[in-house]
Design a protein that fits this description.
117 residues; mainly alpha; 4 helices; globular
């Protein structure tokens, strides 16, 4: 839960780097919340809760994805692959890969910097 809150606190922080742990914990909690909201929306016959949550979480999700790409030494422009047929598979591989050790052009190694929670 701390990683999820850390991403929300860095709401539009597109610079820097994000560890795999930060990215995947945020993604896991995000999916769980979306499933719960989907079930609640179906129970009440609406789509408003999921829609509001989706809009609220859009920028933090993009920001952590960008920072994760930065950790692997890639530019945020790689996110445009998401709009191609198989581009999301390439992005998934990039997000799974271990980040560059030490400093890269996007900042210090997040494994060496204490987490800001």
């Amino acid at each position: 839960m701390n990683w999820y809150i850390a991403v929300l606190k860095n709401y539009v922080g597109f610079s820097g780097r994000a560890r795999r742990q930060e990215f995947w914990w945020f993604t896991l909690i995000n999916v769980v919340v979306e499933v719960v909201l989907y079930l609640v929306d179906n129970a009440i016959g609406s789509q408003i809760l999921g829609g509001i949550y989706g809009l609220a979480i859009l920028l933090p999700a993009i920001a952590v994805a960008v920072r994760r790409l930065h950790d692997t030494g890639r530019s945020a422009w790689w996110l445009l692959l998401y709009f191609t047929c198989i581009g999301w598979i390439v992005l998934l591989v990039f997000w799974i890969l271990e980040g560059n050790q030490g400093q890269n052009k996007y900042g210090d190694d997040p494994k060496l910097v204490p987490a800001q929670v």
